C-alpha cells in the first residue's frame, strides 16, 4: 500500500498518531525530525542557529524524497515540510496525505509540555506572545496544510477515535 504521511502544525499530533498507526498496521514509523537529528548529530535548534532555516528545509526535502516512495510506511514529517511546493508534489504523488489540525490554545499547551525547542515558535517579535506566534504561523500555513486527502481535528479527540477514523477511511480508499 502507498505510505501514509501525517502533516500538520507543531503539536497537532503527528508523532502520537503516527506511532499508534504504525503499531496498528505493523508498518515502520519514519520520524523525519529524528532522522535529521541523528544524521546531523545535533538538535534542530542547533541546525537553525548554525546553518539557518533554509539549510534545514533542504535536509527535509532530501529526507522526504528518500522515504516517500517506500510502500507500507508511516511518515511523520516536521510541521514545515508542506511549505515547499516540491515537497507537496512528492507527497501528493506518492503518499496518502493526512492533515492534522488543533486549535492554537491546544497547540500551545502541547508544545509547552514538550522538552524539544521549536525555533519557529521562539523566533518572535518583541512583545509577541507564543500564542500569537502560533496563530500567525498557522494562518500563513493554512493552505499548505489544506492540501491533503483527509483532514482531522485532534483538539478534542482521543487517539483511539482518530485511529478508528483513519482505519475506516483507509479501508474505503483502498477499496476504490
Ligand atoms: C517545524 C516543526 C518541527 C521541526 C522544526 C520546524 C516547523 O517539527 O521540524 O522545529 O517549521 O513547523 P514538529 O512539527 O514535529 O514540531
Notable features of this structure?
176 residues, alpha/beta, five-stranded parallel β-sheet, 9 helices, 5 strands, globular, binds shikimate-3-phosphate
How are strands sequenced across the largest beta sheet? 2-3-1-4-5
The distinct ligands, each listed once, are: shikimate-3-phosphate
Supply Rg: 16 Å
The description of the largest β-sheet is: 5 strands, parallel
Distance between the termini: 13 Å
In brief:
This protein is an alpha/beta fold and 176 residues long. Helices cover 58% and strands 13% of the residues.
What does this structure look like?
The chain is of the alpha/beta class and 176 residues long. The protein has nine helices and five strands, in the order E-H-E-H-H-H-E-H-E-H-H-H-E-H. It has a five-stranded parallel beta sheet with strand order 2-3-1-4-5. Helix 2 crosses helix 4 (53-67). The radius of gyration is 16 Å and the shape is globular. The model has no long low-confidence stretch (mean pLDDT 97). The site of shikimate-3-phosphate (S3P) has 10 residues, from helix 7.
Amino acid at each position: 500500500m502507498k505510505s501514509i504521511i501525517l502533516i500538520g502544525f507543531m503539536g497537532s499530533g503527528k508523532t502520537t498518531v503516527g506511532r499508534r498507526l504504525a503499531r496498528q498496521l505493523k508498518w515502520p514509523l519514519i520520524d523525519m525530525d529524528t532522522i535529521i537529528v541523528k544524521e546531523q548529530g545535533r538538535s534542530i535548534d542547533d541546525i537553525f542557529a548554525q546553518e539557518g532555516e533554509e539549510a534545514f528545509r533542504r535536509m527535509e526535502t532530501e529526507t522526504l524524497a528518500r522515504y516517500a516512495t517506500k510502500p507500507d510506511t508511516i511518515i511523520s514529517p516536521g510541521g514545515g515540510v508542506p511549505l515547499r511546493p516540491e515537497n507537496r508534489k512528492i507527497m501528493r504523488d506518492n503518499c496518502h496525505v493526512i492533515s492534522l489540525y488543533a486549535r492554537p490554545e491546544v497547540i500551545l499547551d502541547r508544545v509547552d509540555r514538550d522538552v524539544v525547542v521549536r525555533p519557529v515558535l521562539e523566533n518572535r517579535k518583541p512583545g509577541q506572545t507564543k500564542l500569537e506566534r502560533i496563530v500567525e504561523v498557522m494562518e500563513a500555513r493554512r493552505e499548505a496544510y489544506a492540501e491533503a486527502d483527509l483532514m482531522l481535528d485532534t483538539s478534542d479527540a482521543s487517539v483511539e477515535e482518530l485511529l478508528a477514523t483513519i482505519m475506516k477511511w483507509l479501508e474505503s480508499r483502498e477499496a476504490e
